[in-house]
C-alpha cells in the first residue's frame, strides 16, 4: 500500500444544478483565457492594439479544437471505427482526446485567417501568444487527471498517480503522472520563451519556434513513459516521431529566419502607433493652446507700466530704469 500518492478524482464532472461542468472542458477554457490574457499584454507591449489577440483567438480556438480532435481520431481511429465501437464517440470531446499537433496546426490556420482580416503579420502574433499557449497546455493537461488518462508506467514513487477507474481497459494501480510531468514542463517552456524573448529580442516567429522546439524536447521523453495504446513505427510511438520532426523544423526555421530577417518587427499592427502618436500630438496641441491662451491674457501691472512708458515717451519725459 502506498503511503503517499496523487489521488484521482472520483468523477470528472460536477453539476451546477442541471448543468454539467466537466473537468476536462473546464481546464481547456481556463487555459484559453490565460493564453489570451497574456498574449494581449505581450501584443500591446509590442505596439499592438488591445483586443486584437482576443479577436484573432475567436478564429484560432475553434480551429484548434477541431484540429486537435481530428489528429486524435485519425491516429487512434480503431477506438471509434473498429468492430464493436460506436463512431459517434468520435464527437465526444469531453471524454478526452485532443492531439496538440493537430490543435497547433489547424489553430495556426485559424489565426492566420484572423490576422489576415486584421492586416497584421502572423509571425508577430505567434510570438506574442507563444508563452500563453505553453501555459494553456500546462492547465489543460489537468483535464487528463479528471479523466484518469494519459499516465505512465507503474511506479512506487511518492508522487505516483492512483488510478481507480477500470473503464476503457484501465487497470487500477499506481502509475507515473505523465500529465503532471508535461504540465510542469510546459510551465518551464513558457518562462523560457519569455526570458529568451527579452534577452535576445526575438521576432518574425522565432519566439513561437522556440516554444515549439522546447515543447517537443519534453514531449519526447514524456511520451516514452506512457503506456496507453499507440501506433509504433520502428519501435517508437507515433508521437515521438512527430515530436522529432517538428523539433527539427522549428530549429531550422529559427536559424534561417535569424539570417534572413534579424531583429524584431518595427510595426506589428498598422495604425496602432499612429493612433498613439495622434493622441499624443493632440494632447500636446491642447496644452500649447492652453498655454498660449494663458499668456494672451493681459496682466494689469504690465499694462499700467506700458501705458506709463508710452505716455512718458510721447511727452519727452525720460523714464527711470532699475
From TrEMBL:
Keywords: Cell membrane, Lipoprotein, Membrane, Transferase, Transmembrane, Transmembrane helix. InterPro entries: Lgt. GO terms for biological process: lipoprotein biosynthetic process. It is a multi-pass membrane protein. Its EC number is 2.5.1.145. Pfam families: LGT. It comes from the Bacteria. Pathway: Protein modification; lipoprotein biosynthesis (diacylglyceryl transfer). GO terms for cellular component: plasma membrane. Signal peptide: none annotated. Its main location: membrane. GO terms for molecular function: phosphatidylglycerol-prolipoprotein diacylglyceryl transferase activity. A 1,2-diacyl-sn-glycero-3-phospho-(1'-sn-glycerol) binds at residue 141. The chain crosses the membrane at residues 21-40, 52-74, 94-113, 179-196, 208-226, 238-256. It is found in: Cell membrane. Residues 271-322 are annotated as: Disordered. Belongs to the Lgt family. Catalyzes the transfer of the diacylglyceryl group from phosphatidylglycerol to the sulfhydryl group of the N-terminal cysteine of a prolipoprotein, the first step in the formation of mature lipoproteins. HAMAP family: Lgt. This is Phosphatidylglycerol--prolipoprotein diacylglyceryl transferase. The gene is lgt.
Amino acid at each position: 500500500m502506498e503511503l503517499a500518492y496523487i489521488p484521482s478524482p472520483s468523477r470528472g464532472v460536477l453539476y451546477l444544478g442541471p448543468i454539467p461542468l466537466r473537468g476536462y472542458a473546464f481546464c481547456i477554457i481556463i487555459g484559453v483565457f490565460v493564453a489570451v490574457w497574456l498574449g494581449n499584454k505581450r501584443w500591446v507591449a509590442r505596439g499592438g492594439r488591445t483586443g486584437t489577440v482576443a479577436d484573432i483567438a475567436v478564429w484560432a480556438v475553434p480551429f484548434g479544437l477541431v484540429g486537435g480532435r481530428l489528429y486524435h481520431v485519425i491516429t487512434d481511429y480503431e477506438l471509434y471505427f473498429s468492430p464493436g465501437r460506436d463512431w459517434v464517440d468520435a464527437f465526444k470531446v469531453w471524454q478526452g482526446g485532443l492531439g496538440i499537433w493537430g490543435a497547433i496546426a489547424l489553430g495556426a490556420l485559424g489565426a492566420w485567417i484572423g490576422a489576415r482580416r486584421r492586416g497584421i503579420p502572423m509571425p508577430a502574433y505567434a510570438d506574442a501568444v507563444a508563452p500563453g499557449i505553453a501555459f494553456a497546455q500546462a492547465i489543460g493537461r489537468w483535464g487528463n487527471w479528471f479523466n484518469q488518462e494519459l499516465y505512465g508506467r507503474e511506479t512506487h514513487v511518492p508522487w505516483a498517480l492512483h488510478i481507480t477507474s477500470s473503464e476503457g481497459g484501465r487497470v487500477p494501480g499506481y502509475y507515473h503522472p505523465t500529465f503532471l510531468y508535461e504540465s510542469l514542463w510546459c510551465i518551464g517552456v513558457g518562462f523560457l520563451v519569455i526570458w529568451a524573448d527579452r534577452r535576445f529580442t526575438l521576432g518574425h516567429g522565432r519566439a513561437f519556434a522556440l516554444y515549439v522546439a522546447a515543447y517537443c524536447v519534453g514531449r519526447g521523453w514524456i511520451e516514452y513513459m506512457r503506456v496507453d495504446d499507440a501506433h509504433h513505427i520502428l519501435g517508437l510511438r507515433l508521437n515521438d516521431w512527430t515530436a522529432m520532426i517538428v523539433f527539427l523544423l522549428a530549429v531550422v526555421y529559427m536559424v534561417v529566419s535569424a539570417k534572413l530577417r534579424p531583429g524584431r518587427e518595427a510595426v506589428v499592427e498598422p495604425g496602432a502607433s499612429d493612433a498613439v502618436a495622434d493622441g499624443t500630438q493632440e494632447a500636446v496641441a491642447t496644452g500649447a493652446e492652453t498655454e498660449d491662451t494663458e499668456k494672451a491674457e493681459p496682466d494689469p501691472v504690465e499694462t499700467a507700466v506700458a501705458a506709463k512708458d508710452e505716455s512718458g515717451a510721447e511727452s519727452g519725459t525720460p523714464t527711470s530704469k532699475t
